[in-house]
Amino acid sequence: MFIRTSSQIDSWGVPPAVRAPPLSAGGHEARPYIHVASEPPRPRISDVMDAFTLKWRDYPKAVKFLFAVYALCFLWGTKNHVVDLWHGGFLPYSYAPLPFNLYWTTLTVLDPLAVLLLFVLPYHGMVLAVAIMGSDIAVNLYANYVLLHGSTLPDATLVSQIVFGLFLFVTVPIAWKRLRKSQVSQT
Asked: Could you count the other beta carbons within 10 Å of the beta carbon of residue 110?
C-alpha cells in the first residue's frame, strides 16, 4: 500500500509534487519545477490469491460443500456443451430454432462463468447459477415436449437437470444465509 508521510503533505493537504511552483516577479518560475508522479505499487498475483484463499477459508463448511456440488454440475454441463460444439461446430443444435441454438451455445461460456463467480463473487455466482438453471430447464422442457414432441417420460439428461435445478433452488437460499451469517460474525 502506498502511504505518504506527513512531511510529504503541506498544510493544505497537497503533496509538494502537485503544488504549482512559485513565480518570480517577472512571472517566470523562480526555480525549476519537476513533477514526479510516484505510483503506488501494483498488487501482485500472489496478494490477490492470498486474499481469495483467506476469504474461501472463512466460508462455512456447508457452503463449501454446496459450492463444490454446484461447480461439479456446472462443469459437467460445460463439458457437454463443449463436446456438442466439437462434434457439431458453432450452433450445433440444428433441430432447434436459432434463439434456442444460441442459448445452448452460450451456456458453454455461462456455465464456467457461474463456477468462477461462485468462488470469487459468491452472491453474483449464486444469482447467475439460479438464472442459468431456471432458464435451462424451461428451454429444455419446451424443446423436448413442443419442438421434438417428446414422450411423457423425459430422457435421463433432462431428469438430471431438473433434479440439479431443484437442488440448487432449495439450497441457494440456505447457502446465501449461511454465507451472510458468517460474514456478519467476522466483523
From this structure: 21
Q: Give the span between the Cα atoms of 97 and 104, in whole angstroms.
A: 11
Judge whether 82 and 108 are in contact, CB under 8 Å: yes
Q: What does the alpha-carbon distance between residue 122 and residue 59 come to, in Å, rounded to a whole number?
A: 10
Three-state secondary structure call for residue 23 = strand
The count of other CB atoms within 10 Å of the CB of residue 158 is: 17
Q: Is the dihedral of CA 27, 31, 37, 38 positive or negative?
A: negative
114-147 burial, b for 16+ CB within 10 Å, e for fewer? bbebbbeebeebbebbbebbeebbebbeebbeee
Place of cell 424451461: 138
SS3 153: coil
- Whole-number Å distance between alpha carbons of 12 and 81: 60
> Model confidence at 33, in pLDDT bands (50, 70, 90)?
low
C-alpha cell at 95: 433441430
Q: In this predicted model, what pLDDT tens digit does every residue of 147-175 receive, in sequence order?
A: 877 666 668 889 999 999 999 999 999 99
Nearest to 176 by CA among 94, 96, 121: 121
